């Protein structure tokens, strides 16, 4: 689900998607670009909590991250934390 990357939908929107999605279907939600592109993974606690506070309404699923092509240093730094 790509739209969460640009603007995090309200929790009730995720709840509606869950109701409309066939049973057993798993959704992967893309992490907000606010965390990956703007904050560059610095101080992640609040953005991650806000993201999952909304996305958990889907039930089980996956989260994926999208990084800029030149963000290798950022990813490496985050993996060391």
TrEMBL record:
Matches recorded under InterPro entries: DUF72, UPF0759_sf
Database matches in Gene3D superfamilies: Protein of unknown function UPF0759
Organism domain of life: Bacteria
Pfam families for this protein: DUF72
PANTHER family: DUF72 DOMAIN-CONTAINING PROTEIN, UNCHARACTERIZED PROTEIN YECE
Protein name (database record): Uncharacterized protein
């Amino acid at each position: 689900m790509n739209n969460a990357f640009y603007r995090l939908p309200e929790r009730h929107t995720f709840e509606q998607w869950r109701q409309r999605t066939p049973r057993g279907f798993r959704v992967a939600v893309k992490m907000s670009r606010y965390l990956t592109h703007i904050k560059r993974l610095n101080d992640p606690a609040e953005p991650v909590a806000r993201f999952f506070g909304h996305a958990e309404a889907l039930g089980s699923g996956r989260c994926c991250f999208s990084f800029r092509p030149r963000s290798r240093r950022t990813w490496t730094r985050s993996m060391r934390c």
